[in-house]
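Q: Here's a chain of 255 amino acids. Please give me its 3D structure as tokens.
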Amino acid sequence: MYEYQCSQQGSGIYGYDYLIIKEIFDESKGTYGYRRIVEGLKIKYDVVMNGKKVLRIMKKYNLMPNYIRKSKKKNKNERIEDNVKPNLLNRNFTTDAPNKVWDTDVTYLIFKGSRAYLSTIIDLYDRKVIAYKISKRNDNKLVMDTLNEAISKRKDVSGLILHSDQGFQYTSYEYKAICESNGITISMARKGTPIDDSPIESWHSLLKKETLYNNDITSLENYIELVEEWIEFYNTTRIKGKKVNKKKGYKKNDK
């Protein structure tokens, strides 16, 4: 549950309005119109919000019951172009302290036609995993759960940059609202340019090499179990080598 905050500073307040409206809408199993949302805000948060404002936010973020939008149904996994952000890293993946730059992505875990999805957030300072989630569904919830867990673990995240590709989850209004309300700046790789997001791409590649391609896996469940064990090993035990950048003369963490 999101705690309603009444700060008028910055753009975060609009993000909180959206998040609490969406929470009540989701709890109604997507059945409430704006009038019941207004009632729900009063009951759950003791917040009085103008009905016109609630309706405006619900329309903007496409929060409406299915029976209303059936005739104009949109693809839920559609990238929202208005929410695409510029690439702030420009392939500079080094940082001098934790909690300055995070990188995130979703990858497939496939075994004999069965698949799951792994959502991961790493800190570019030491390439350690801050949070991850595994699901049988590649949806917004997978990414939001990962993001909320990372925020709850690190807590002081205001001012950090969160880098990703332009996947539909990362251009969603919910992702934007969570980031803005926590002071996180969104950065995105250019469309169709995996090298712009190479740290997390390389990390997922390493994970698969040392789990899927290094074990006699018997099932998808066995694969998932190995992935979870490997992430714990990676974060706590695995020796990380040093690469020397000959041009600049400094060392950086290898995977």
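Q: Can you summarize the key feature?
A: The two ends are 36 Å apart (CA to CA).
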